[in-house]
Amino acid sequence: QLATDRVDDNGNIVVRKQDWSEMKVHVSSYNTFPTAAGLASSAAGYAALVAGLAQLYQAKEEFEGQLTTIARQGSGSACRSLYGGFVAWRMGGKNKEQDDWSDSLAQQIASEQHWPELRAIILVVSDQKKDTSSTAGMSTSVATSELLQHRATHIVPKRMEQIEKAYLEKDFETFGRVTMADSNQFHATCLDTYPPIFYMNDISRSVIRIVHAYNAWAGEIRAAYTFDAGPNAVLYTLERYAIELSALMLHYYPSFGDNYVNNPKFLVKIRSTQLDPQLLEATDRTGRTPQAGDVKMIYYTKSGPGPQTLSTKEANIDPTTGLNCYSPP
User: Which letter does DSSP use for residue 309 in this model?
Assistant: First the structure.
């Protein structure tokens, strides 16, 4: 429907719009993040698929954000992954009586350059496929959780306004507080689902306790946790606290080797950081005993762009044969 003629650099038509339906597409996809573990692997995959097909077909949107409405049909969160920076998924449904959800789309609130000091520290507690998929879990929650209905109607709209304002104003105190409160309530709806869904585990909860102890010791919100449909923690902080927070996590969740953190130079910095004894005294009271193996890997990253076109050297498919050339490391 959105496809157009594909033309070369000289303006010559290579593929006519009406011919696309007769052609087949070879797709090769892989994740650099654990799959189906609550780290948005499906969002990344479907966003990349839609972006790639849109580029191939020279697709033209009929309204802004139309491609995001296509991406969310594969994975809800994929709609947000088509843009970089801070992105909101608008609920839509103004014409739901006609079963028209075309206005349920993603909107970029700010680009990845807006808040350059913001950092994310991701603790991979489990890289295994979760017991309950995000889609199945949400379907069950919609059918059985009264708390979810209240949350969608009365809580989420207000929090969306709060967190968008906080992000635009670079107000980490509010951003962190709303982020943690919303994560907690999301998992409360999972418990309110019948039968209940348990995405977090004891390691996840220990991270939560340490983050709150850290913030209490600092006298301000320096770190904020959020957990999606899985046990893995995403911690937000500012660049000036990133080394301290990461060193704290490394203290309680020690590493196996030099590949424990995705950024080797950052790992050297946090390994050499001496933590304040009073901080450790405060976080020790959470009951966490340092133990290797509870966290499989740590990613240190920041807000980035949407889907990127890679060079042929990085491609999964050989451009001369059309065959898959990717092999897992």
Answer: P
